[in-house]
Amino acid sequence: MSLTLEFLLLLIVLVLSYHAHSGSIVKFLPGFEGPLPFELETGYIGIGEEEEVQLFYYFIKSEKNPKEDPLLLWLTGGPGCSSLTGLLFENGPVALKFEVYNGSVPSLVSTTYSWTKMANIIFLDQPVGAGFSYSRTPLVHKISDTGEVKRIYEFLQKWLSKHQQFFSNPFYVGGDSYSGMVVPALVQEIAKGNYQINLQGYILGNPITDTESEQNYQIPYAHGMTLISDELYESMKRICKENYVNVDALNTKCYKLIKDYQKCIHKLNKYHILLPDCDITSPDCFLYMYSLMTFWANDKSVRGALQVTKGSIGEWVQCNYKNISYNYDIKSSVAYHMKNSIDGYRSLIYNGDHDMMVPFLATQAWISSLNYSITDDWRPWMINDQIAGYTRTYSNKMTFATIKGSGHTAEYKPNETSIMFKRWISRQPL
């Protein structure tokens, strides 16, 4: 073989390799009638020197003005839950149609509440093992909060190097639930990095921030929502000394009260206390949509359309808790919020007021601990002359908001959450 021909073949391999990792435009999705009315790109970004870790992403361009609109990196919590959850249930341009599964590909319909109406969004499957992300070889290091911060930052640098037209767009990081541990640290990592990213701030919904505090605040939340009696609450406060997590082993009276408390709340749906606690396989349940998503993501035609690497994963699961060994090495993200505030980054922290997993009382408590003065005091925020929730703004550019009637994630009130996001990202008062 001549040297010239050998060089040409090598060049072709490199070009094909680059395109394989730079993403593919998806114009049709199984279950959706006709061509997609938005621009969707899917692909993998290799992480590490050997790029053994392959992180899968969905990128949707803004339907308004992609050249100038903000770029948002969205992380779903867990840790280990697929970002497809966010895309199909919370803030994406398509959603699953509620129908009983009949063996065919579940149907998709357009949404009216998509955040892509005013922002470009990257939905990232992370950590490795979540969604369609995978590793070519067994991982050497255990997955951890701090390790994920490094990996996501590397993902972002490599993604932007392949999408340089978005370098100057205002950049935000967003997420919910367990992302509350990773996002504030990621913002700090981006801020101190040498890579020129136009970082403006971050947005978090019902964020896990300090797990011990959040568990403790479940008891006053339960009392405020009339889930436990005044007498039980007052006894728990007095005898457990308002610490219901690390209870003194000798405090048998406190353990007895906690058992009484558990009897009152064990059949509740803690993610939304007004909804029934039922099996996701039941079509009568709100959570049946999760089953439909699993059927959709495991369909061969769907994987083909999304350009998922064949044989890279087995069954797709919404949250891969069983197979991801995770080191929870950030115990509290409050210090990261403080540093981000000092650095001048904007933030929107919101809570569904019917979420018991991360009660709004706990979120309010750590925000208060930052000791920033209030610039716009507690008030209702409105949609069409109706109260959609309550909000307060602080001098550190942090806005706190509740979403009335919502639960642990935006899927319970997507329209209201979308309007809140649109106002905040446009720098308007809620």
Please describe the topology of this protein.
Elements: H1 3-21, E1 24-26, E2 40-47, E3 53-60, E4 71-75, H2 84-91, E5 94-96, E6 108-110, E7 120-124, E8 134-135, E9 143-144, H3 145-162, E10 171-176, H4 179-192, E11 199-205, H5 211-216, H6 218-224, H7 230-239, H8 252-265, H9 288-297, H10 300-305, E12 326-327, H11 334-342, E13 346-352, H12 360-369, E14 374-383, E15 386-394, E16 398-403, H13 414-425
Parallel strand pairs: 4-7, 4-10, 9-12, 10-11, 11-13, 13-16
Antiparallel strand pairs: 1-2, 2-3, 3-7, 3-8, 5-6, 14-15, 15-16
Task: Give a short summary of the structure.
The protein is α/β, with parallel strands linked by helices and 430 residues long. It has 13 helices and 16 strands.
Q: In CATH terms, what is the architecture?
A: 3-Layer(aba) Sandwich
Q: Structural class of the helix and strand makeup?
A: alpha/beta
The CATH topology: Rossmann fold
- CATH class division: Alpha Beta
**Could you report the average pLDDT, rounded to the nearest whole number?**
92
How far apart are the first and last residues' alpha carbons, in Å?
67 Å
Number of helices: 13
Give me the Rg, rounded.
Answer: 23 Å
Tell me the major beta sheet: 12 strands, mixed
Work out the number of β strands. Answer: 16
Number of domains: 1
Strand content: 15-25%
CATH superfamily: Alpha/Beta hydrolase fold, catalytic domain
CA-based shape: globular
Q: What is the string of SSEs from the N terminus onward?
A: HEEEEHEEEEEHEHEHHHHHHEHEHEEEH
Which residues form runs of ≥5 with pLDDT under 50? 7-21
Q: Level of helix content? A: 25-40%
